[in-house]
Design brief:
The structure holds two protein chains of two kinds. Chain A is α/β, with parallel strands linked by helices. Chain A contains 18 helices and 15 strands. Helix content of chain B is 46%, strand content 14%. Classes of the chains: A alpha/beta, B alpha/beta.
């Protein structure tokens, strides 16, 4: 057990407890979920990003209205690859576009009128989600009252999210705010048309590059009815009846365990944690759900069909990737979701890092890795660069902001946030994932990185 | 626009533009004084447009700053950036948060430095609730010049304020100056910092090669004149004129024949350089390319959106090529936008509709009313172009759904050829009878 102070952090020794070298039997966890060191070149985003971008944003048929100056609305316009079969949520950017006048006199009127305007122009919107940005919290607009008033006027739900960017220490609080808001204001407000003994919600699945379209049918083939997916490709009306599920499964256990717990506490509906990535973990998830609903045979049948179809493809990529070493840096859960799938491809994860992991995320990481594994909490640009150079992983799974730094170092890269050519979830998705890693690692372009121009 | 809500507004906030201005300065670390999203979001946009890493520091303001002010965070951020990266310059931009809580950035940053610290701090005020990304660029550039420019002996150079244009554009302008044998100072220069090569044995450092040196910005007070390619970025030019008597040239962006002619003439008259044959040949090739395609392009309806300097210059170029610019739209208001286009309308008997300070929802409505066979704009135009079933030729910022757009110029005679070829090929590639393309 050791914490490490990398060379780039000598002037900011407070970073040391965040960087841990793992020693089985003598485990310590990186310090986490605290304020970033100002000016450390963090990769973190804000609470607004977690609320609007991650949890609220995928709801496909609502007007996603950002209350604040223009930037926050623009930057989240169609950015995250949370796909759907309706285009309202990604095609359009709605903003109150606050200017100096509103900052001085308040933005209440602008917000009210913006809700009315949006509804008039887009009556197909099933609800309006109103997200507050930093300045709204500072000037003190009473968005609760305005949204209530607007809701009475337009007759569809208008839901305020108090997700000002400066709240909390990272995106993570935004996830919590979105969960709590949707639970308190939406869940339980409508009953499902019918119920069955096999109703289940998939929670924390945001349909990144079509993940939900892969995993949902797996459960349906087992005879489970997926009541709703929270919130990938979700309609607004998928959320209210969540309280009638018999079971919830939680995929993204950082952003969405909150709502699963709240539903459990209030409605006595159990939840189980799943990892719908990789062959074994996905099979385990199907089996766990099968066991709950007494559909074990159906689960085995689906697993057998999927393995027959996709395992040979995984075996093919495994031969080409065996022995490689990787660095996984994700928001939080995918850092531990992917350690076991990498092993299935013969790849060892030598480094992990998360942007906003909590204690439970790091416990999960440490339970899956071996001696000498390095784990970094809230890494900054300099640390990432130093560790890429020092540890020389064969490839790096990160996000767009780190992508081009990695390329310049001549290290293959996979975008784990939005994916390269996903979906990556489920059995079929894991083939895509393996193929993208294969493409990245085995491309001939890397041969040229250090090849000089020969002068004769 | 009678609406309260903005729907698909193609404009960003001030810190975005300020960061781009700072990224063109050698050894400069941009530092955003605000919440963490205020650095992350612009970084994301820069990375996906230029396909380059874009490192930005942030003071990570949180609840305590909302109550007690952000001085503690900013002081610590400056200290940390200085000690870990040792930059020549820290370019600070404020945000809606730090401006609303009322931090005195100038004072805080002055107090954050120890005696003898070499690093220069640029305190730009860039509240997100005023103006757009272009305002932020302008404010940061002005702050750079105000902080650094010093009167010295004449340098016989021309200052070029680029505004938000691409590395390919900057290289094209540099080439023109090189051919004309005119020395210059670029305010600022992202042509290498945001378009860097992979070289054997080295990797792009956190403070990349290229960019304008602080000493060059200091020397901008001693130049023959300042040409602002984008008039939205002219505050630094105005400052240099008022403070140091450096003449200012504020003309349309050099796109098309007339605008590029004016640009080249301006360089010539400021510097006394003759216009060499090589430039005249480039101009001739542009005219040759326009002649080659005029049957394809005559009367073609084109709708254009983007930043005002580029849009109004492209409107003129489209008219020169015989096209019919039906709608010109910009989200950033600027006093020259409408007059520029009205002048084109008068000269070419066109009837371009002018939309200013509005959004793509309104632009789309205008496209439906006035027609377009081609849309020019950034990646945000993709959906509406698809809805109208017409091609989108991408220019401006950000373009993230095509590669390489940042590498190629649309400025100068040569860049105009590239833009015209793009437009023509888009027309020819879209529902054009292939039988007519064999000779």
């Amino acid at each position: 057990m050791t914490t490490i102070l990398p060379e780039c952090d000598i002037p900011i020794p407070q970073r040391q407890p965040h960087i841990v070298c793992h020693e089985p039997g003598n485990m310590i966890l990186p310090m986490c979920n605290i304020q970033t060191v100002p000016g450390d070149m963090t990769e973190r985003g804000c609470t607004f990003a977690g609320c609007r971008g991650v949890v609220g944003g995928p709801v496909k048929d609502v007007i996603q209205l950002i209350h604040g100056p223009i930037g926050c609305a623009y930057y989240t316009w169609g950015t995250r690859r949370n796909l759907s079969d309706v285009k309202l949520h990604r095609k359009y950017c709605f903003s109150t576009d606050l200017t100096e006048e509103s900052v001085i006199y308040g933005g209440a009127k602008k917000l009210y009128n913006s809700i009315i305007d949006s509804h008039e122009l887009f009556p197909e919107g099933k609800a309006v989600f109103v997200y507050s940005t930093c300045v709204v919290g500072l000037i003190g607009d009473d968005t609760e009252a305005i949204c209530k008033q607007a809701q009475e006027k337009i007759g569809i739900p208008v839901i305020p999210f108090h997700c000002e960017g400066f709240r909390g220490v990272s995106q993570s609080l935004g996830h919590h705010i979105a969960n709590r808001t949707l639970f308190e204001k939406v869940v339980g407000t409508e009953e499902p048309e019918t119920t069955t003994p096999y109703d289940m919600c998939i929670i924390g699945e945001f349909n990144i590059d079509g993940d939900a379209w892969i995993v949902k049918p797996l459960f349906e083939r087992m005879g489970v009815r997926v009541l709703s997916v929270f919130t990938g490709n979700a309609s607004y009306h998928d959320i209210p009846p969540m309280h009638r599920a018999k079971l919830n499964i939680v995929q993204c256990q950082r952003s969405s365990t909150y709502i699963a717990k709240m539903i459990q506490d209030k409605y006595n509906i159990p939840y189980i944690n799943v990892s719908l990535f990789g062959m074994k973990q996905t099979a385990d998830a199907l089996r766990d759900v099968g066991k709950f609903f007494h559909l074990e045979e159906n689960a085995e049948k689906v697993v057998a069909e999927e393995l027959a179809k996709y395992q040979p493809k995984i075996d093919y990529h495994k031969k080409r990737l065996e022995g490689k070493k990787c660095f996984i840096y994700q928001g939080a859960p995918r850092a531990w979701h992917w350690i076991e799938p990498m092993r299935e491809l013969g790849i060892e994860t030598i480094l992990t890092a998360t942007t906003f992991g909590h204690k439970d995320d790091y416990e999960k990481i440490m339970s899956k890795v071996g001696q000498g594994h390095i784990c970094i909490d809230n890494p900054n640009a300099l640390e990432i660069e130093e560790y890429l150079i020092r540890m020389k992983p064969d490839f790096f799974i990160g996000g767009l902001k780190e992508k081009y730094l990695t390329y310049k170092l001549g290290i293959p890269f996979i975008n784990g946030h939005s994916y390269e050519e996903g979906p990556y979830a489920g059995f079929e998705g894991f083939v895509n994932f393996a193929r993208d890693i294969d493409v990245a690692v085995n491309s001939p372009v890397w041969k040229f990185i250090n090849r000089p121009l020969e002068v004769s | 626009m009678a609406r309260s809500v903005a729907i698909n507004p193609p404009k960003m906030c001030q810190p975005m533009g300020a960061i781009l201005a700072y990224m063109g300065v050698h050894g400069c670390v941009p530092l955003v004084h605000g919440s963490q999203g205020c650095s992350t979001y612009p970084r994301y946009n820069i990375a996906r447009h230029f396909r380059e890493s874009a490192e930005v520091a942030v003071s990570s303001l949180a609840e305590d700053a909302a109550v007690y002010g952000g001085a503690k965070n900013l002081t610590e951020a400056i200290k940390n950036v200085k000690s870990r990266i040792n930059p020549a310059i820290i370019g600070i931009c404020t945000t809606c948060m730090s401006e609303t809580i009322g931090d005195d950035v100038r004072l805080i940053s002055k107090n954050a430095l120890a005696p003898g610290d070499a690093v220069k701090i640029i305190p730009a005020s860039t509240p997100s609730y005023v103006g757009t990304h272009l305002t932020g660029y302008d404010n940061a550039m002005k702050a750079l010049v105000e902080t650094l420019a010093v009167k010295d002996k004449p340098n016989y150079k021309i200052n070029i304020i680029t505004g938000i244009i691409n590395p390919g554009d900057i290289r094209e302008i540099k080439k023109i100056l090189r051919i004309m044998n005119v020395k210059s100072i670029f305010l600022s220069d992202i042509s290498e910092t945001l378009d860097s090569p992979i070289l054997p044995g080295v990797h792009k450092p956190l403070l990349p090669d290229g960019g304008t040196e602080a000493s060059e910005i200091a020397d901008s007070a001693n130049s023959l004149g300042t040409i602002s390619i984008c008039r939205t970025a002219s505050s630094a030019a105005t400052y240099l004129r008022n403070k140091f008597n450096v003449p200012t040239v504020l003309d349309p962006a050099p796109i098309g024949v007339a605008n590029t002619d004016r640009f080249v003439q301006n360089i010539s008259s400021l510097s006394g350089a003759v216009i060499p044959d090589e430039i005249k040949k480039e101009r001739g090739r542009l005219i040759d390319s326009m002649v080659d395609v005029h049957h394809y392009m005559f009367g073609r309806k084109v709708a254009i959106f983007g930043d005002p300097d580029l849009v109004s210059a492209i409107v003129r170029f489209c008219a020169e090529a015989g096209m019919d610019p039906t709608v010109a739209m910009t989200a950033t208001k600027h006093k020259d936008f409408a007059p520029d286009i009205k002048e084109v309308n008068a000269e070419y008997k066109t009837d371009t509709q002018i939309l200013e300070g509005t959004d793509l929802y309104e632009f789309h409505e205008a496209v439906k009313t006035y027609g377009a066979e081609l849309i020019l704009g950034n990646s945000k135009g993709k959906d509406l172009a698809d809805d109208e079933g017409v091609p989108l030729v991408r220019f401006g910022f950000p373009v993230y759904d095509r590669v390489g757009v940042y590498r190629y110029p649309i400025l100068g005679y040569n860049g105009s050829i590239y833009l015209l070829d793009q437009m023509t090929n888009a027309i020819l590639g879209h529902k054009y009878d292939p039988n007519k393309l064999h000779q």
